[in-house]
Amino acid sequence: MSANSFIRAGLVLLVLYLSAIGATWNGVLLPSVSFITLAVAAILAAVWLVSHWRGGWIWHTSPLDLVGLAWGAAFVLSILANGDDWRRGFIALWYIGLYAGVWFALRDLLDNRALTRATLIDTFLIGSLGVVFFGYFQITRTDFDLLALDFPRPGSVIGNPNSLGAYLVVLLAFAISRLTGVRSGIGRLTLGMYTLLIGVLLLATFSRGAWLGGLAALATITALSVPLNRPRAWMAEHRRTVIGVGIAGGLITALIGGLVIASLSQSGRQIGLRTEIWDAAMNTFTAQPLTGHGLFTFGPAFAEQQSQPPNQPHSHAHNAPLHIAAELGLPGLIALALTAATLLIAMRRAYFALSARERPTLTAGIAAAIGFGVHHLVDLPAMMPLIALIGVLAIAIATTPAQPAPMQVRWRKLGHPAGMVTLWIVLIGSGLWSTNVYSGYYDALSAPFGDNGDRDYRAAAERIDAAITADPDLAYYHFTQGYLYALAADSGDESALPLAIASFTAYLERDRKDAIAWMNLAALHRENNADTDALNALVEAVAAAPASWPSWVNYGIYLEDVGFIEQAQSAYIVALETSSSVPYHPLWDETDLRQSVAARYDRAPIHQVTAALLDGSIQAQIDADILYTQSGFTARNRPENLVIRALVAIRVGDLTTAQDLLNDATTAATVQQHDAWVHLGRAALAQAEGDAATFDSQLAAARADTEFDYTTPLYRTSSNVPYFQWLRFALARQIIPQANYYVVDAALLRLLDDLE
């Protein structure tokens, strides 16, 4: 094998590793993978620097050298002005340093002709075969209705559909540009099929930002394919091609436009959800326009403006300029503007310095970089390291000139290599230290759980002391320790209770806007008979998450128990007006005050159906069936609706239909509460068929699925906070068992009680 073949094979393996796990969120959150990735990075950095030295390579300037100073000034100013969040900022700085190191390495390899654009593009295309293949594998493993726009959004090995879309934008630009340079029939057919597969998978991601980026990349390739010195003559000469491309482009644009419009009617995909985040980013920026709120702080800043729970936490503003404005203020925006202008100028210069025959690979980089940038005007998938790295790759390919300029100033010629060595030593050293601390935390957290877990929650909590001692300002270590101590207290270890309180208090000293932590602390104070402290913590909880009805219910219960009846009634009213699912919950039957307040509010349609079912008369079943249909409970991906429909069928004796509906519900179930609904339906069917054994087992399974489980989030995407705002693993539940968080569906509880 020649040296070039060896290099190509190594690059393909690197792309496969990074895209499959190494640079994805799984790779970030699993310390065992992080150690491997750091080792790979250290080896590659060492090989590059030694090759540069042994090969007598020359250091060259790059278009981002001076712009880097502007970014550095923005980073320093923001961290100094927001010292309380310095630990978050240093997490971000490590990744920024990594991307800078990769940028300088890629440019040095390209400038010294150790790698070519074609080599990088080809190895990326080959290494991405696994991403494309697994994306289609996901699609084929799931039922879907294309006409109803009811189909899975593949994330492939990358995980997130929007991140996959960003990856595919770059891949598509590379594939199309390389396709124009292939001459053999078999090669064109193979690469053409691959390009088509990439394009279709990009559509299937349903990532509207990626679609815009893809269109921008296609438009760039089209524009750069026309000779600038004779555009009219060229278009006349290639009239059929121009017409074909125009028609195809128009059809693709119309298709994407139609899909975008259709997507706006889908649950969770409305444009208002995105504009709310953008508004929050603007509010964050205007509050501190000169310094921003600090690197990696958008998540908690957003939580101050939106109730979480029940709303989804987000770690970025879904728009690169707005995100930078919120975190770095005007200095960051100035640095961003300088970067964009500098890169566009560098691309233009590189393009005009090449002949038409040499331009296709450069065009690939330019199209990929522009598509990548357009996508980041409406989203920010580069928060994932993998996506940021392929953005760096595209920009490096797009801006490397035909004749790079060597560094001339002596201090730069000496300082640059010293800076590169220092940068990589700091990155690898600090990365190993942080990962080692995190690994101890991860092992401690994992020890009590799983099939072979020891269930010794206190011992696990005590093991986290090592991580806290080494890195006390990484706040989520305190949260997890408090959570484990709370589990120990719930298991009978009374001495763990004050330790849990101390841990959550320490966490909230660092992150006061976390409503879940306040809920947990309130429950622990209540358990410790400190009612005043419990009420004060709940005041903070409802202030941080005013739309969280369970917090208001708990606040009302605490107030009612200590005799503040009017205040309790006010809290109950807020809870009832916050959610239509509240009035039917069994908790409202427990006291006269709650019964009287709940009686003033209408039930949600699904609860009206449940009440009709529980009535027992034939007319009630008919009413329930009509109400079910009129209320729109027909979505196939809603297991509870399918089970309700099955219960109606059982009550009127149509057991075959009930069985079919329960089979559909089983297929649609995705979370533990869905499973509880399915078990409920199967228990009711077994009861109708006289199968006592199945009835008992299914009813027990349904009850088990409504009990406390540390693996199940109590509200959707709640684990986004530790995963994406601290880059640390945590138990998905987050809310301790002592905190009564009434998320089990009231209809499910009522129906289970009726079966028993």
Radius of gyration: 29 Å
- Uncertain segments: none
Number of domains: 2
Write down the overall geometry. Answer: globular
Count of runs of 4 or more consecutive helical residues: 35
**Helix/strand/pairing category:** mainly alpha
Report the strand count. Answer: 0
**Distance, first to last CA:** 72 Å
Mean pLDDT: 87
Largest sheet, described in full?
none
Give the % helix.
Answer: over 70%
Percentage of residues in DSSP E strands: under 5%
Describe this structure as you would to a colleague.
This protein is mainly alpha-helical and 756 residues long. It folds into two domains: 3-427, no CATH class; 605-755, no CATH class. The chain is 70% helix and 0% strand. The protein is built from 35 helices and no strands. The protein has helices at 3-22, 25-29, 31-54, 65-81, 86-111, 117-127, 129-140, 161-179, 185-204, 208-224, 231-237, 239-263, 271-287, 298-303, 320-352, 359-375, 385-399, 410-446, 457-463, 465-470, 476-490, 496-510, 515-527, 531-544, 549-561, 565-578, 592-598, 605-615, 618-630, 639-651, 655-668, 672-689, 692-704, 720-725, 746-755. Helix 30 packs antiparallel against helix 31. The radius of gyration is 29 Å and the shape is globular. The termini are far apart. The model has no long low-confidence stretch (mean pLDDT 87).
